[in-house]
Backbone:
């Protein structure tokens, strides 16, 4: 193959980036959250476990075709300077008053969006609307998982401010894909969340506290690792892709001391807790009645126009 062709397909490949936990981890998180639910809920969720799993990635697909979607996946908490974690308004209205909607949209609205979704899912349960229950359950699972990713809470989301471009995908996609076989995804039973806003901010705070470790550890590793062995090429279908080498990824994973697994477990637990809380707040509707209803494909399926491409911030470019 000539150099031009090689460069072309290499570039094409690099353009297909994931955002948020890689697709693999998002699916796992939604899937395992189903097993935290009490029997009154789990029968329906298990019946639709494939839908809940597959559609965990819809919000990431949506951000290229729906205006305003991208902001729902992150919050640049450090944009708001010192003690922002403690002083940021927990409620959307208050936040808009202090910072204006434009600023918030620019730097991400993830925590407030999860809270909005929480209301929507509760309402769907109240109305026993099976379509909305399924779609919103899959969606909220995605956003909650994003809130547990440290690099979704910082302006330096891809290490671009510290010369570590590519770290986003390394941490949230490459590591889980390579090493999650050994993770323990059983996180116990779903529990009621007394104050969802505060619970969301607790997750954001915990994730943000991990940002320094994510970056510092990789910097240290990079300074001590033979540069020629840092990357390798992997065949995907008919193309080659430049990736962090397995040796490099393994060394990073070891140095992080279980951090990725802890954040995935925190995501699973929180997704289960929120589904459960929505259902309880809706008055514990009988979900067994919804099992086996004939469902219209069209109303369940979300379509993503292929040729529409919004210019949005990506986490790995
Ligand atoms: Zn996302």
Residues:
């Amino acid at each position: 193959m000539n150099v031009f062709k090689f460069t072309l397909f290499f570039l094409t490949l690099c353009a297909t980036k994931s955002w948020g936990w890689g697709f693999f981890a998002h699916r796992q998180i939604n899937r395992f959250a189903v097993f935290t639910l009490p029997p009154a809920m789990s029968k329906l969720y298990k019946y639709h476990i494939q839908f809940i799993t597959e559609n965990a990635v819809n919000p990431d697909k949506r951000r290229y075709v729906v205006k305003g979607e991208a902001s729902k996946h992150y919050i640049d908490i450090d944009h708001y300077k010192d003690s922002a974690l403690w002083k940021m308004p927990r409620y959307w209205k208050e936040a808009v008053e202090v910072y204006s909607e434009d600023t918030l949209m620019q730097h991400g609205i993830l925590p407030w969006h999860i809270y909005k979704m929480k209301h929507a899912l509760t309402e769907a349960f109240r109305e026993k609307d099976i379509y909305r229950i399924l779609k919103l359950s899959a969606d909220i699972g995605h956003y909650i998982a994003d809130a547990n990713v440290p690099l979704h809470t910082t302006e330096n989301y891809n290490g671009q401010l510290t010369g570590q471009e590519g770290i986003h995908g390394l941490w949230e996609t490459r590591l889980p894909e390579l090493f999650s076989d050994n993770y323990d995804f059983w996180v116990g039973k779903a529990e009621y969340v007394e104050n969802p806003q505060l619970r969301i901010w607790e997750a954001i705070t915990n994730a943000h506290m991990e940002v320094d470790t994510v970056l510092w550890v990789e910097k240290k590793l990079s300074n001590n690792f033979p540069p020629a062995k840092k990357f390798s090429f992997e065949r995907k279908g008919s193309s080659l892709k430049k990736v962090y080498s397995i040796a490099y990824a393994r060394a990073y994973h070891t140095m992080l001391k279980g951090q990725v697994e802890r954040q995935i477990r925190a995501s699973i637990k929180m997704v289960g807790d929120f589904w459960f809380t929505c259902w309880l707040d809706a008055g514990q509707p009988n979900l067994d009645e919804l099992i086996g209803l004939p469902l219209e494909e069209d109303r369940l399926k979300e379509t993503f126009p292929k040729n529409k491409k919004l210019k949005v911030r990506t986490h790995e470019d």
Notes: The domain at 25-182+192-289 is CATH 1.10.575.10 (P1 Nuclease). Residues 19-20, 59-60, 73, 142, 146 surround zinc ion (CB under 6 Å). DSSP finds 16 helices and two strands in the chain.
